[in-house]
Amino acid sequence: MTGIFSYGFMQKALVAGVITGVVCSFLAFFVVLKRFSFITVGVSHSAVGGVGFSLFLGVNPVIGGTVFATLVAWGIGAVSKRGKINEETAIGIFFSAAMALGIAFFGLTKGVYADLFGYFFGNILAVGPLDLWILGISGAAVVLVLAINFHSLLFMCFDEDLAQAHGVPVGPLYYLLLTCLAVTTMVAVRVVGLILASALLVIPAATGYEVFADYRRMLWTSLVTGVVSTVGGLYISYLLDLPSGAAIVLFAACIFFVALILSPKKRVARRLSRKERIQSNADRTRLKT
Amino acid sequence: MNRMSILSRTPLDRASTENHTRTAEIEDFPAVEVCHVHFYYQGKVVLDDVTIRVDPGRFLGIIGPNGAGKTTLLKTVLGILPVDTGTVRIFGQDPRGARMNRQIGYVPQRLNFERDFPVSVMDVVLMGVKVKRFPWLQGPTVQGLRIRRAEELIKRVGLSGLEKRPIASISGGQQQRAFLAQALCIGPRVLILDEPTTGLDFKGQREFYALVKNLQGETGLTVVAASHDLEALAYNADELVVLDKRIWLRGKPDDVLNSTELKRIYGIRNRAVLRG
Prior knowledge:
- The complex is a heterodimer.
- By secondary structure, chain A is mainly alpha-helical.
- Chain A has helices at residues 8-33, 37-57, 61-82, 87-108, 113-121, 129-148, 150-158, 160-165, 170-187, 193-200, 203-211, 215-240, 244-262, 264-288.
- Chain A is globular and about 65 Å long.
- Chain B is of the alpha/beta class.
- Chain B has a single domain (3-19, 29-275), classed as Rossmann fold (3-Layer(aba) Sandwich).
- Chain B has helices at 3-7, 11-16, 23-26, 70-78, 95-100, 121-130, 139-156, 172-185, 202-219, 230-236, 253-257, 260-266, 270-275; strands at 32-41, 44-54, 59-63, 85-90, 104-107, 190-194, 222-226, 239-244, 246-251.
């Protein structure tokens, strides 16, 4: 395996993969706990609009996509928080409209069709030095923001009202989380693409959630799953000549299903419920006698 | 073990509170003061000229039918909902500031959190004190003190041995006691209880209020509790108010419960409410 990473482009791909794996799986921890999976899908798909608009204007699509995805994420948040439109309906409207806008701009911009596949499904082998810088800086910013607000975000995911009563600024944190979501989607664009970015923002933490009943272990499992998936997927992509995004997401999904089958948490739950059943039967028998 | 030490604010907490007023000054104010508060939601009156005063160390019970505005009133006291007119003060401070300064503890109705949410009883108790940024930068002494205080509180609310159990795996009554420990862990001066025994059985309700009353007696904590459980509140509170958009009755629990006004508000016989 080390042989393939002796190539310069593969080294860059490896660095990009590891950064993406860490950033996505750290944010995925909160996405899963806050039940943000559908918002994540919405935000990542809506970034297509930003990329299309940026290409049309001739600006950097990653930066344009980030700004656009952030605005869409805030829009979804504002509409659903005011309670006038159901959150899922808002996501459905925003992301389909944003995607349609992106596709319209792709149609208006000549000569971009060759790049589209890379934006939609990732092209990690085309990562350049500038991409690495953007990835590194924005990824580090997301990790830093999440680390600083870790316990407040955890409390908010547990219960918003209770967190607010304890002085947690729930409103600003909600929008901060949405912003991190938009930035991270664009961090992942080169590695897995816009369409598959949401997978890396859910699967690693869902694996940890399935395995452990302790948030610290869940977080570590998420980080390990994220990094192993990107590195393993990258290797498989090179070996079988598959698109990198698809290989990485499939690798992560395999890890999730293995965890689902072997989950020790479920075994403990089964054992506890068996124990409670036996106890309750014993109580009933005692009452009868 | 000196129980007073569990709930009293540590010097470390005091030092970290930016706007902390000296205790001597604070004691000159009522613990909770709600003056002529009006609150409207979508054009409808929820609170109509509500005035309440609770002195330090007293237990005020708020009763009233569904939709009477009990939760809204408590949320204005917490500073979560801004009032349309009138003022709310906690020890002379703005409630939002008092909440940020950790002077208010809050126990909600039973929460519908995710069944598999990966936090233990100990994690829940410590959640309120960990929300400060960079808690790990506060050094092992502060962290150690907080963990010790959390352990003492868990013991005090009768959850010893359950510290590491996932919060969702314990009973509803135990969960509410864990949230009580969480509220007390920040070292508040005022404890707000919003129908904390909803969904608990009769024994669970009685045990919960008995525990609150004991803790209040030991520490001089001010308690404001809203509940449907008239009997439990009447037994434990120093004063009762009956709220139905506005304050209809206030006084000693026996006087309030024997009032004919209560019968009108609830639309049933008072004693039937008590026995039900």
